[in-house]
Each structure stands twice: as structure tokens, then as C-alpha cells.
């Protein structure tokens, strides 16, 4: 399964690449497999590692984590993450905190990554980075935050990388 693949590969790779010096992991939730597999592996290695989920405003997952209730989702434009149901692969108990990120914040961060770092990511990449930057800003300089950049921006050139599309969606100049 997706969860097992991330437990077997992504989690160990993060642990090895950071030499076990990781304080926080940030990921979004689509099927739930990535965040669940990685979180399970990392927390087995060090239960003090905090797992943050980046979730679009409009997704039901933060409300579900906070209250246990399944509410009605709202429309959002970031693709591939968030949900209006709880994915079967998601073990929400492994997630310490869920942060909602607006479409505008996600798309702005993705565009900033392209401009400043040359990383052409999509909306879910922007969502993850927005939360990772916030988490890192609240930590000490010697602490390590890891996130994943799950999508390419190539599919979004006519969307979030288009000023016209961003303007039409109320994301520029407002």
C-alpha cells in the first residue's frame, strides 16, 4: 500500500538524510498514505518528532482532527490534497497538528519558490512549504524541519502560474 511504501522508503530516507536530527515533519494529506507512513516510521524512531499536516482551507480534515466530527467541505482550488471525507489510509492520531492554508497562500508560496529558488512546484507544494516555513520560524535555528514537495508546477502553468487566471480567481491585486 501507499502507506507501507512510505514507511519502508520515505521515512527511512528522511531519517538517514537528517542523521536522525529531525524535529518536525510537514506533509499534506491526499490519500493519507505519505503522512501516515512517514509519521509512523519517524515516531517509532523518536516519539518527540512533531508531525504537522498542511491542509487546504475548505477540507474537512482539520475539523475532524480537532472535534472528531465530519462536516461538509467547502470548495478550494489546490488540487490533490485535502478532502471532504476521511481517507482510509490516514491515521489522524499520528498527526500532531493540522494547519489550514488558503488557496492564495498556497499559490503565492509556490510562485515564490519558483521565483526565488527555481523550484517549479504546484499548489500542494506551496501548501506544504507555507506550513514548513511557519513551523521553522517558531523553532530554534538548530532544529530541523522536513517537508516534501509533492507535485510539479508544469501542470499548472495555465493556472497558478498565470497572472490572468490568478486575477480571475481573486488571488492577485486584491
TrEMBL record:
<keyword id="KW-0808">Transferase</keyword>
<keyword id="KW-0198">Cysteine biosynthesis</keyword>
<keyword id="KW-0663">Pyridoxal phosphate</keyword>
<keyword id="KW-0028">Amino-acid biosynthesis</keyword>
<feature type="domain" description="Tryptophan synthase beta chain-like PALP">
    <location>
        <begin position="2"/>
        <end position="151"/>
    </location>
</feature>
<dbReference type="InterPro" id="IPR036052">
    <property type="entry name" value="TrpB-like_PALP_sf"/>
</dbReference>
<dbReference type="GO" id="GO:0019344">
    <property type="term" value="P:cysteine biosynthetic process"/>
</dbReference>
<protein>
    <recommendedName>
        <fullName>Tryptophan synthase beta chain-like PALP domain-containing protein</fullName>
    </recommendedName>
</protein>
<dbReference type="InterPro" id="IPR050214">
    <property type="entry name" value="Cys_Synth/Cystath_Beta-Synth"/>
</dbReference>
<dbReference type="InterPro" id="IPR001926">
    <property type="entry name" value="TrpB-like_PALP"/>
</dbReference>
<dbReference type="Pfam" id="PF00291">
    <property type="entry name" value="PALP"/>
</dbReference>
<comment type="similarity">
    <text>Belongs to the cysteine synthase/cystathionine beta-synthase family.</text>
</comment>
<dbReference type="GO" id="GO:0016740">
    <property type="term" value="F:transferase activity"/>
</dbReference>
